[in-house]
Amino acid sequence: MHYDIDLERVPNHIAIIMDGNGRWAKARFLPRTAGHKAGVETIRKVLKECNRLGVKTLTLYAFSTENWKRPKLEVDTLMTLLSTYLKNEVRELHKNNVKITTIGDTSKLPKACIDELERAYELTKYNTGVNLNLALNYGARNDIKDALVNILKDEKCGKLSIDEITEDTISSYLSTKSISDPDLIIRTSGEERLSNFLLWEAAYSEFYFTDIHWPDFNEKQLQKAVYEYQKRDRRFGGLK
Q: What does each C-alpha distance from 158 to 22, 83, 154, 167 come to in angstroms?
């Protein structure tokens, strides 16, 4: 099916909860790790399509603070995939003008991941194409908690007055301070919840849920999500 997308009204920021790698693998009698490897291929497709459509920021929920509870083999596989993906793809991403950023506490990641992330930041920091923003060891509640702690510290030492605190103040202390709030949040594989992802930033986001597992999500599926987004009437609490 062809989706007639208005390139003048493409979401500025798309955030995706990449769900279903394990279920995709199970349906094929494969180990969960095979699903994660297949999911990396989907990232390539979706990022390329975002670049083509003119999306400014693509945030991917790559590893949550809760994901550490998963079996060690699966966590190790995810970390290896991350470092391998960056090592193998960063030059191509740079060639395509992609800028790489992260949100979350990346200091807790293995050294190999941290090293590859640092190289990716440095190589792509001046790029002006789509911003590939990876949520790594990220949890929205923890991010909000850290913001409040830092606001209290700054208030205590006189850098900030309680009377001056606004919603914008809180936003400026979050790890997402340098990017816009997501216009569209997509979740694959049939689940319909945020799972501690961008809770503050999602206040006026549009949501798109699909039963398709992440490894089967492709360019056409992204186009469908953007097409559905463009059919919505976004009033931000007001009237038109």
A: 49, 41, 6, 19
Which band of pLDDT confidence, cut at 50, 70 and 90, is reported for residue 233?
confident
Closest among 35, 14, 34 to 189, alpha carbons compared:
35
Burial level of 114, CB count in 10 A (0-12/13-18/19+)?
Answer: middle
Residue 108 Rama label (left phi>0; alpha psi -120 to 50; beta): alpha
Identify which of 201, 94, 73 has the alpha carbon closest to the alpha carbon of residue 143: 201
Separation between Cα atoms, residue 170 and residue 150, nearest integer Å: 10
Separation of alpha carbons 160 and 155, rounded Å: 4
Looking at per-residue pLDDT, the higher value among 223 and 2 belongs to: 223
For the chain, give me the number of helices (H) and strands (E)? 7, 6
CA–CA distances in Å: residue 176 to residues 65, 127, 179, 180, 211: 16, 18, 6, 8, 28
Biggest alpha carbon distance in the chain? 59
- Cβ contact 158:22 at 8 Å: no
Q: Distance between CA atoms of 115 and 84, rounded to whole angstroms? A: 11
CA distance 196 to 211: 20
Could you list the active site residues?
19, 67
